[in-house]
Amino acid sequence: MSWIAWAMLSAVFAAATALLAKLGVAGVDPNLATAVRTTVVVLFAWVIAISFGAHDGLAHIERRSWIFLGLSGFATGLSWICYFRALSLGQASKVAPIDKLSVVFVILLAWPLLGERITLMKAAGGALITAGAIVLAFA
């Protein structure tokens, strides 16, 4: 499958995540809900890695990658904690679009951090995502 197909599947599962999390967080402390979800993700990820034999490469991960993967995990944890708190307080149809502003932040930060160019199309897309998030959040 192409990267587009995988990205579309990611979007479908992210939508399912928002809806299922909103249902699951009802009456549950958001931090506890995040811990439960994270436990499931960790177990699932290891089952997939082991099933495909990817765990064999664990010893070959370089120090730099460990650092960035660790920081990424930390950022993911913070994101999920904030996301579940937002879901516990607000409507999923309003929280999810604001969360997707991460796309705009990636566009902006990929330029200085990764050397990616901000083209007219990327800027326009980012502006449309921002406008859409604002419209949906305040609808």
TrEMBL record:
PANTHER family: ACYL-MALONYL CONDENSING ENZYME-RELATED (PTHR22911), SOLUTE CARRIER FAMILY 35 MEMBER G2-RELATED (PTHR22911:SF137)
Matches recorded under SUPFAM superfamilies: Multidrug resistance efflux transporter EmrE (SSF103481)
Entry's transmembrane regions: 36-54, 66-86, 98-114
Name of the featured protein: Transporter family protein
Organism name: Terriglobus roseus
InterPro entries assigned: EamA_dom, EmrE-like
One CC-aspect GO term: membrane
UniProt domain EamA: residue ranges: 2-137
Pfam families: EamA (PF00892)
Alphabetized UniProt keyword annotations: Membrane, Transmembrane, Transmembrane helix
